[in-house]
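retry 2 of 3: previous attempt timed out while embedding magnesium ion. Reduced batch size to 1 and resubmitted. Inputs unchanged:
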Amino acid sequence: MQVDHSYSRLPSVFFQPWQASPVANPSWLAFNQQLATELDLPAQQGETEQGLLQFSGNTVPAWAKPLVQAYAGHQFGQYNPQLGDGRALLLAEVIAHNGKRYDIQLKGAGPTPYSRGGDGRSAIGPVIREYLVSEAMQVLGVPTTRALAAVTTGQPVFRDDELPGAILTRVASSHIRIGTVQYIAALGNTDFLRTLADYLIERHYPDCSSAATPYLALLEQVISKQTTLIAHWMRLGFIHGVMNTDNTSICGETIDYGPCAFLDQYQADKVFSSIDRRGRYAYSNQPPIALWNLARLAECLLPLIADDEKQAVEQATAALQQFQPQYEAQWLEQMAAKLGISQAVPADKTLIDDYLQLLQQQAVDFTLGFRYLSGELQTGMDNKASALFASPAAFASWRERWLARLTEQALSHNEIAGQMDSVNPLLIPRNHLIAKAIRQAEDDGDLTLFHRLHQAWKKPFASAADADLIAPPKPEEVVQRTFCGT
Ligand code: AMP
Ligand code: MG
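retry 2 succeeded.
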């Protein structure tokens, strides 16, 4: 196991050395052996007594040098100068099998100097949700933090109710956020800011070091990674729910899973999060919000981009203006692929938009609305797609246009259907299933459904799965509101 602590070599204003607070009676929820192998963690880190003590914060592993990271951030548009790891603890960086560096972090391991009155703990519900959703996102091809381990603490946490406490061990290419850059920039010390930018370049964007203007190149590459990330979210109907700048990773991974949820019925302005009262982080607002967050990053980097402020603003603005065209191109390509179109052209946007509008008007399930389309191309398949529409006539006329478009491709219907089934999942982490798994774990300590979902969501594109995992929620099962649980 190759370990390093590069963050601890940064100036001391970036972090504080810290320790987890021990818990009463830790017990395993899950350990991700597959990920442990990828990270080259020794087997005894797994479901052993020693591993349990380490992943509950009760003992400090010999390879760890724990610290908490400082950051700031815009929360729902309001700047908060002092956030930081209020309930997270960076144990170490490991150099994985593939040569890449990953942070290993405990989440819920007790109060820290950045807890701001919070308890530094996590309830079992958010731990289960993050474990399931982050691992599913990985399989669905979305950049994301991963879940390595989850344990219960044997201690209650007090939210609206008394709930079992739990700790998640998560793995990220790094936990550095736009908010981290905001925090350092706000110190007003350009040397610190340059040190952070150089660290980011070395760790995440090494090509930038040979660019003519490395810090502008850094901004451009962060923009590009964020663009890709949001296009992934949109193609899957994923709503992050708390796209604050402190929850926006510099390396473009989905991070800080809180009240996140996937669309069932398609609704462009859908909001699940109970704290997002004005719909700032609604599904369709995610691209403009990502750009807004990137503009906050750009402001921080101005002193590094050019000595002349006007010139720096011009260059940063030009970089930000790349977001929209890049995003639109990626969205078009990915959404067209969902319809079986392998070489998207601008005119395909209308076909996609019209389909989304149909889904919305007829309250059709987003995931199945795309997945079942491939059945329209295969003889002998039942008309599962048209059966999703309450008034199939509107679908039928859209279908004619779609089939006409597909004839422009030199591919058989079977080949197109195969391609569609490789990008349109049959299974997504449905909110009502996650809610049910959490309830069973909270009420009875029953982890059967949690483990079943974790296994099933490893194969989201397979053509067969249990009917109860495919089906959209029944009316009485629909989850309308999700909670951070912090
Ligand atoms: P979030 O937007 O949920 O990712 O968190 C915003 C800030 O609140 C971060 O600084 C977290 O570390 C902090 N925070 C969230 N929950 C807790 C908690 N239970 N105890 C202490 N700090 C917390
Ligand atoms: Mg956060």
